[in-house]
Amino acid sequence: MEYNIVRKKISKKLVRIALVYPSTYESMLSSIVTHLIYYMLNELYDEVYVERFYLKKLFGRGEEPRSVETNSPLKDFDLIITSIHYEPNISGLLRILYSSGLEIYRNKRRIPIIAGGPGVIANPHPYEDFIDAFIIGEAEDTLPGIIGDFITYKDNKNGFLEKISSYKYVYVSDYTNRPVRREWTKNLDAAYYPIRQIQNTEIEPVYGHGFLLEVSRGCRFWCRFCMESRLFKPYRRRSNNKLFKLINKGLSVNLLDRVIIYSLLFPGGKEDTKLLEYLVSKGIKGSLPSLRVEYINDYFLELVKDLGQKNLTIAPESFNTFVQRIFGKYFDLNIVNESIDKIISKGFNLKLYIIFGLKNESLDDNKVNIDALRKIAKKINEKNLKLTITLNPLVPKPKTVFQWFGMIDLGKAKNIIRYYRGELKGLVNTRPLYVNWAWIQGSIALADKSISKVLAEWSLGGGDLGSWRRALRNNSYSTSYLFNGYRYDEPLPWDDIVLDKYVEKTLESEYYALARLLNV
Questions:
Q1: What is the pLDDT of residues 389-424, one digit of tens each?
Q2: What is the CA 270 to chain-centroid distance, rounded?
Q3: What is the DSSP letter of 191?
Q4: Is the pLDDT of residue 340 over 90?
Q5: Is the dihedral of CA 237, 240, 246, 252 positive or negative?
Q6: Where are the beta strands (DSSP E) in 208-296?
Q7: For residue 338, what is the DSSP state?
Q8: In Å, what is the CA distance from 403 to each residue of 227, 387, 488?
Q9: pLDDT at 223
Q10: pLDDT at 218
């Protein structure tokens, strides 16, 4: 079923590391970081064996998880590594621990857990009662040294945690009493990349079968709602020469004929067009991420068509010019509309992401979007193509300006979704229920350590919406901070996490700009 698995002989001298992906198997296959950590550590250390675990049921308590490689229980491992990409992933992690017979609280557990990922880099504090150490940075330049230390301190958990707490990019609750500074990979061409990737002949990954290719990291733009663009600045791109080598080796080793491109910013200029030219010239199929519209032209779209892609995704976020100013994205909507027209004229199905939920927003404020989407739908229908619209409530995140402004009322957000669904029948694939998951996501993202009892009860109760409400009620926990926002002049729970001086300074200027625009 799977191939490219790493096999090592189990012995008492072997350091066994569990790489726990707190979501589904299909999502794990589509995660570049899973492949990167799995192969990097298994190749770097002969005495280390990394095996994979995943969440078998999204909700409820599942059977005891076993490693994919050797069917071993989690309690047989010396160290656990995990990633919190999406804040509710913590529920998956805690349920995996519980189903494995392990303590969920770190101070009661023998096996240490190290975590990274966007949710952790922005704010590790909601998780610190469960996770022993947090990596504030990117895996290639941080994880190998930490694993080297673990080999030395394998039988001394406290000694290991004290040792790695000395690194500027590591947060350990019991030892760290200073600002923690993000570490990032300066040269992607020189960084480790997983040429081999786990393939499954029977199960389809989220984005289909293909060689996962990270073209760039970070983003040149400053969209105000986007946490990841701030966490992974500055923008870095692999050279095309490097990318061509990765493609050739990756397709050969993995027995594939398709490339899946990963990038926060694509296309980002002429080099990305040249990359597509190379793929087309070699007869390689391709899949693209959500596209920035500035660099879309007829030639680019012809290349995309030659790659075999029939569906394109763009994220205008809003067709309301005032809202665009608030979001800091696409100030010239003419460019957006022209690009959409080109996409439709070339015969692509289209998926659009729209964000709503500014404070004081009314149903009428969304009418501009409704009118624009109706026009797009009419053009799509004339070409017998498909249009899908995904609505996302604005979820305030740490290290974005909306940490100070808060989230729209849940009832109002649900009414807005109903309004869109009523006005755009059959086109909107977001339901009012999704607003509740935005609530959970934002409540965790902006929390401090005090949320830990809620997270524990919610997770062990099944990790669904009903258990979330019960956990809040049973612990008398208020999520008002999510809706009110934090006061600008008061400390934030994540102030001890320093991304970059320029990022922090930009946040200050953005606050004053939005305060003027929103009259607050």
A1: 999 999 999 999 999 999 999 999 999 999 999 999
A2: 26
A3: S
A4: yes
A5: positive
A6: 211-214, 216-217, 236-237, 258-262, 285-287
A7: H
A8: 11, 32, 9
A9: 92
A10: 95
Neighbours of 495 (CB within 10 A): 12
User: pLDDT value at position 270?
Assistant: 94
Long-range own/partner contacts, residues 293-296 (CB < 8 A, 24 or more apart): 293/330, 293/335, 293/336, 293/339, 293/340, 294/335, 295/267, 295/268, 295/269, 296/267, 296/339, 296/342, 296/343
Count of residues in the chain: 520
**Rounded CA separation 297/153 (Å):** 56
* Residue 309 in tokens: 């892609």
pLDDT score at 295 = 86
pTM for this one? 0.95
What per-residue string of b and e applies to 255-283 under the rule 16 or more CB within 10 Å gives b?
A: ebebbbbbbbbbbbeeebbebbebbbeee
Return the structure tokens found at 443. Answer: 């409540």
Helices (H), 30-168: 32-44, 89-99, 118-122, 139-152, 157-164
Contact 160, 149 (CB under 8 A): yes
Q: What's the average model confidence in pLDDT over 424-440?
A: 87
Asked whether 279 and 211 are in contact (CB, 8 A), the reply is no
The neighbour count for residue 208, using CB atoms within 10 Å, is 11
Query: What is the average pLDDT across 477-486?
Result: 97
Identity of the residue numbered 243: L
- Tens-place pLDDT, residues 360-392: 787 778 999 999 999 999 999 999 999 999 999
How far is Cα 320 from Cα 281, in angstroms, rounded to an integer? 40
Q: Are 35 and 212 in contact, with CB atoms under 8 Å apart?
A: yes
- Residue 376: other Cβ atoms inside 10 A: 21
**Strands (E) located in 335-386:** 349-356
Q: Indicate whether 427 pLDDT > 90.
A: no
The span from the CA of 138 to the CA of 319, in Å, is 35
β-pairing, 216-217 vs 236-237, is antiparallel
What's residue 30's pLDDT? 95
**Mean of all residue pLDDT scores within the chain:** 94
